[in-house]
Input
Amino acid sequence: MSLEQILDTEEQSAPTPYPISWHSMTLKEKIRQRTQLVTGMLIDPATSELDEERVRKWIKEWGIGSIFDSPANHGGKFINYSAKHFAEFTDKVQKIAVEEGSKKVPVVYGLDSIHGANYVDGVNQ
Output
């Protein structure tokens, strides 16, 4: 079986509130959905804040589907955010993904917590 046949295999899935199904995506869209960025690619280095235009570029033009790491990691320079600030960061990314992305698919967000939640200021480890 070819990779394309595998990716086009219809899967049984639970109903979802999102208006897209895996088998309705092109191979290119499926590959892009599996592309994962680190948060540093979305941060404005001058302000250490989320650059929403960068988010739009990666989601709308490239169709990325996953973001990994804490917004506190700016290329190895760590700036801890409060839990509220962290939630605002991820909420803004999701809002752009589901409202402006070509397929309106939420972004999968991964957080490295192998040593505890030390990326969020004030969290017990």
